[in-house]
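User: quick one - fold this with zinc ion bound?
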Amino acid sequence: MPLALHNTATRRKEIFEPIDPTNVRMYVCGSTVYAPPHMGNARPLIVFDVLFRLLRHRYGERHVRYVRNITDIDDKINAAAKANGESIRDLTERTARAFHEDVAALNCLTPTVEPRATEHIGPIIKMIETLIASHHAYFAEGHVLFSVVSDPDYGKFSGRSRDEMIAGARVDVAPYKRDPGDFVLWKPSPPDLPGWDSPWGRGRPGWHIECSAMSEVHLGDTFDIHGGGLDLIFPHHENEIAQSTCAHGGKPFARYWVHNAFVEFGGEKMAKSVGNVRTIREVLTEVPGEVARYAMLMSHYRDPFDWTEERTAQARHALDRFYRALRDVEDFTAPENVFPVTVMQALEDDLNTPLALTALHAILGALNQAIDRHEKLRLKGQLLAAGTVLGFLQQDPETWLKGAGDEAAEIETLIQQRLAARKDKNFTEADRIRTELAIRGILLEDKPGGKTEWRRAV
Ligand SMILES: [Zn+2]
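Assistant: Sure. Structure tokens for the protein plus zinc ion:
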């Protein structure tokens, strides 16, 4: 079955056909390393990791090139370093290290290349020079600006009117701009901020040009997939397209644009500006990375994801069930792990991970009921193969369930607390504990003689 992806550029689902099946190329806008990444940032990491794994599965591991950049020069970085009283380099190194630990805990594969903006100043300057030479950019008062009127296609990608674009870009209209929509490619740096020598004096690049230059260096002028969060469509991706196509004489830039929806928390988009941010690190102190990953894949990537405890409890419960079934057939060595068609069909339909998980549960149900050894082997092989593309079920079941054993101890503690509350006639607290456990899929049964037993809802 062909792979279908929703393409933001055409606003419809399209069959994915790579330019060169032996070199499938994907660029995803990465992290700006100034603060610990939050669960909103985790979503594209997980979504595009699944797409990367799926592409590797289809075209072969050595035939997929995934580039995810690190933005290590940015005004937000400069401001955060100043506020922390640490050097810019210390801040970006420390944040990048923590970022890599978080991404690994979410079981994301390392991209083929992870370029850093500060290591691509040469190509950035070169691209700006090309844009100036072709009259798509101009120099004014120490800045180089992209001229939006020079590109008749500007605005088509995001489908915004000119007024919306100007308002959306939140440009403070500097007097040196020829048009209020023009955006910065290069700006001057005072001595206390990072800067590089350029034909326009000592300065630093704007954010948008970084991605255009890095994708050009690592993937070429035209490549297959460009990904990122919905919030990047305008202005970031609109500007990337303008810069790259104009610098490359009108050659197409990325052919398929894939955007993930937001993560919400408490009914609002999770964002630093809203103040409802939960960092990946905070979540990892509560649940294993595999649970966080599974929880996120319970929603389709184009739907908003509401981060709730109920979700993570469901995810943990599901993974426990999968690992328990795998432990029961642990001594059966599958000769070959064959990818289940049902799971593959779901993923090929625009990465329909909720449907893929439903299909995976059907295989689990069949495995739990299977009696025939050969059938058990086949189903175990299917679960493990699907796990390699979804990015879970790869741990030793015993190790995983030992972690779940800690959970059993925790459940016992909660049951004791509930019994104590009942003795004190604090029924509100007793009910709260019962509800908390019920949300996690743990059902209580009060037995005669004051004993309480628990079981998992299946
Ligand atoms: Zn970008």
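One thing worth noting: The chain has three domains: 4-260, 264-395, 398-456.
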